[in-house]
Amino acid sequence: MTDESGFDIVPPEAIADGRATDAYFDRTVETLEHADRNPHVVAEVTADQFATGEWELLAGVKDAARLFEGRDVDVDAIREGRLFDGGPVMRIEGPYLEFCRLETALLGFLSHATGVATAALEARRAAPDSTVLSFGSRHVHPSIGAMVERSALLGGLDGFSNVAAGEVLGREAGGTMPHALLICFGRGEQEAAWQAFDEAAGSDVPRVALVDTYSDEVDEAVRAAEAVDALESVRLDTTGSRRGDFEHIVREVRWTLDAEGFDDVGIFASGGLGPRQLRELREHVAGFGVGSHVSNAEPTDFSLDIVELEGDLAAKRGKLTGTKEVYRTDDGGHHVALADGSATGGPTAPPADGERLLQPLVRDGELVREFDLDAAVDRAAEDADTVGFEALADDGD
Ligand SMILES: O=P(O)(O)OC[C@H]1O[C@H](OP(=O)(O)OP(=O)(O)O)[C@H](O)[C@@H]1O
């Protein structure tokens, strides 16, 4: 079945219906119905059973929650914008057949968005005082553009480039000029291109001139500053094969702009940048465009596991039995404990001063939570401070 648009895209109705499922869940439904079984279960969505020292930023809960609307289940989840390290991020309770076929889409929503949001948080923390924009739409299937940009914002990025994603999110995409614009004017005609852009673009569009198309970045940066009175920044997107020491190029541009009296013209850097490069460059530049580090982030490896069957402890090998709670302590700790209070000591007992992170999301099939992206962004920044989040990934060259 092809989407009526003609694109190979699974339509939203199929996701909501539970048809975006692995086929073995269809077999499971058939078999359980044949055997007249529909046990009451508690299931948990977990990446790591125990803490690993690698924090991740939870995202995708808004879309995941929609799957449960109208289904006879209760769902609790950590709020979007909180960090986690081990233990469940979501708990579902109800007759198993109510949500069996939703597992595939549920994990997909949470896994992909959490991976992207965590990578965005890494970029954010690598350059806390710089503008950091999401430029990675071109690397991923267009059907997930809004997820990528929303997750990038959740991680703390300041804006994004995908226009249609902006329409979905109710926010305006930003951007200035690609190399194609310079090339359309021809070699040696960079001034004409920058000036035409300045004349054509709306007053709300920042005047940022791309200065690496045909000649040396230092040369083009000074020429752009001379050509456009209101120039805000120059953008260096130097192609990899010409890059050499990018930090040196950036510092040389800064030096020369200052020396020529253009100290009010900022530098914007983009192209293959990740947390390590942001840390190296951040004192010399005003802003960054980050693409693949965020958009191509590895999805978090969430799984859904039944942990109680008809009130009894259950779990497959390698997974921890029993309904759990996760707690954040004032010192930034993350604790996983049994939910029923039966444990009064040791690692399965709740910490004395812990904040319970799993909160009601769905009750009897009704969504009981509001989603406010700005509030979630603030939560993520605060929680990253609390737990001392640092990017662990070394993103190579
Ligand atoms: O962080 P990244 O994974 O590199 O992704 C984003 C980059 O992609 C674009 O480069 P490109 O050279 O394609 O721009 P152009 O179309 O203007 O040549 C853009 O200028 C960003 O720098």
TrEMBL record:
Residues 116-305 form the Quinolinate phosphoribosyl transferase C-terminal domain. Residues 22-113 form the Quinolinate phosphoribosyl transferase N-terminal domain. Keywords: Glycosyltransferase, Ligase, Transferase. GO terms for biological process: NAD+ biosynthetic process. One of its GO terms (molecular function) is nicotinate-nucleotide diphosphorylase (carboxylating) activity. It comes from the Archaea. InterPro entries: Aldolase_TIM (IPR013785), NAPRTase-like (IPR053190), Nicotinate_pribotase-like_C (IPR036068), Quinolinate_PRibosylTase_N_sf (IPR037128), Quinolinate_PRibosylTrfase_C (IPR002638), Quinolinate_PRibosylTrfase_N (IPR022412). The keyword Cell membrane does not apply. It holds the Pfam family QRPTase_N. Its EC number is 6.3.4.21. This is Nicotinate phosphoribosyltransferase. It comes from Halosimplex litoreum.
